[in-house]
Amino acid sequence: MDLVTLQGWLDNASFAVLFATMLVYWTGVAFPTAPYLATLGSTGMAIANLCMAALLGARWIEAGYFPLSNLYESLFFIAWGITAVHFLAEQMSRSRLVGAFTAPVAMAIAAFAALSLPDQMQHSEPLVPALKSNWLMMHVSVMLLSYACLMVGALLAIAFLIVTRGQAIELRGSSVGTGAYRDARYRLRRHGEVIESAPQPNPSGGTAVLAPATATGATQTLSPQRLTIADTLDNISYRIIGLGFPLLTIGIIAGAVWANEAWGSYWSWDPKETWALITWLVFAAYLHARITRGWQGRRPAFLAASGFLVVWVCYLGVNLLGKGLHSYGWFF
User: Disulfide check for 241: which of 153, 201, 227, 278 has CB 3.0–4.6 Å away?
Assistant: First the structure.
């Protein structure tokens, strides 16, 4: 089997495995007591990760350069990055909800690359002069890994908003968080009234609910288990974004040095550069709010969730909709 045929098998296998893994994770969320589903989901993500790593390795051998020169290669690299960051987030949270959000995104990326892109865009081609540099591996790989981290962190923030059912709950604890509901405190907003509260046991036994400290108003129907999940998702989202932001910073700096070497200018306000700066500012604002203002819960979660869209515009949107120095023949 030659390398081209092997690549065709690997990209389709990656999509198929990720699709099956997505279904496993979703089934695990619907039936949390079903045995072995968590293990099956993790195994599926590991297989997909290895398939994509083998695909990128085969293209590296075939083309003779690090496989990040076109959209097909970068899509599979970022999907590989998401599956890799998934393991970090899942290990820290020990929740199958992580895979329920990361698996469909990785699957959609693999499907777009393997099934939607024209054949000519999937073939390795000689590098354009500007890409014949060692900075290709340094700059592009770090940028894509930062996108993967920021996407996973943003997805966990979206999961937090879903788990809390849209209620105005703000965790009150350290920025790092404890990961345990019994150590967390929650600040609720109901009809403009701020209520400080903490999880209280249910007098009838069994599942507890989040009871307001005041006697007025209806009891919040969020179980301690749901609050534990929400606290964990908020904590892990913060940590993963905290990992992705320095990578984004390093990638932007490396890109500026490479731009000066290739084009004689560190910064030219190319659409890609502009949106990279916007992405940096969005997540800088998120981390600033968490670290210096002590924000936790809904407000930073909304900011991180908006960052998911901003990352996609930076990564793909400017290459689809605008011309610039970073298009490199992907679509224009």
Answer: 153
Spatial separation of the C-alpha atoms in residues 87 and 32, rounded to whole Å: 19
CATH of domain 1-126: 1.20.120
pLDDT in tens, 269-326: 888 888 899 999 999 999 999 888 777 778 888 999 999 999 999 888 777 765 655 5
Tally Cβ neighbours within 10 Å of residue 261. Answer: 12
pLDDT of residue 228: 81
- pLDDT score of 103 more than 60: yes
Residue type (1 letter), 103: A
Contacts of 60 (CB under 8 A, 6+ apart): 66, 67
Distance of CA 28 to the CA centre of its chain: 20
* 129 burial level (CB within 10 Å; 0-12, 13-18, 19+): exposed
- Calpha distance 240→245 (Å, rounded): 9
Closest by CA to 88, choosing from 32, 164, 24, 148, is 148
Count CB atoms within 10 A of the CB of residue 74. Answer: 23
Query: Does residue 195 register a pLDDT over 50?
Result: no
In angstroms, how far is CA 290 from the centroid of its own chain?
18
